[in-house]
Amino acid sequence: MDVRFVSSILDIYVSVLDGESDELFRKEYRVLSDFEEDAVGQWLKLAKARGETSDSDDVLIQLLVELHKKVDSLTAYVKNEERTLLSLEHSFKICKIGFEHIMLEEELLEIGKEYYCRICMPVFPKREMPIFIKAYEKNCAKITLMHERDQKDWNAYVTARERIEIREKRLQT
């Protein structure tokens, strides 16, 4: 398979799909997709739909929404209501990424197996991105399922990493 990879070191948490726990993984995947479905996120969507934010700075609004989410998260922590994620079996390092693929530092995957994963993404807001992958080599996998917003952030991250590599190659010559 001819895939264009770029270098990037990311943490990934992985569990193999075995039939028994698949529905739990899919439920967490859906829950993590609804991270915008809080009260402030719903209010912002409605305000945008009504055109009430057309004169506002989108970046500033997004920063305020994220700040509100942090306050909600801290409140939940203090009240011991914090949402917990599933414990995944393995923790690996990604060494290279593509728009639809990942490559691990070590050969730890079983070819043909499907996995549920969470990738720690260094984007704003910082979060764990849930994905499903299928291994086609012992250290390479194709992303088979990713949320639409996560896909946009992922593609932007891959593009940014490509630009960094191009700049580094120019400086070396």
- How large, in whole angstroms, is the Cα Rg? 18 Å
Count all strands and give the number.
Answer: 6
Structural class: alpha+beta
Biggest sheet: strands, sense, closure? 6 strands, antiparallel, barrel
Strand line-up of the largest beta sheet: 1-2-3-6-5-4
What is shown here, in short?
The protein is α+β, with helices and mostly antiparallel strands. The chain has helices at about 20-35, 40-50, 60-80, 150-170, and strands at about 5-15, 90-95, 100-105, 115-120, 125-135, 140-145.
Describe this structure in words.
This protein has 173 residues and is an alpha+beta fold. The chain has two domains: 6-34 and 86-172, Beta Barrel (Thrombin, subunit H), CATH 2.40.10; 38-78. Helix content is 40%, strand content 27%. It contains four helices and six strands; from the N terminus they run βαααβββββα. It has helices at 22-33, 39-49, 58-78, 148-172; strands at residues 6-16, 90-97, 101-104, 114-121, 127-135, 140-146. Strands 1-2-3-6-5-4 form a six-stranded antiparallel barrel. A hairpin with a 3-residue loop joins β2 and β3. It is globular, with a radius of gyration of 18 Å. The two termini are 29 Å apart. The mean pLDDT is 87.
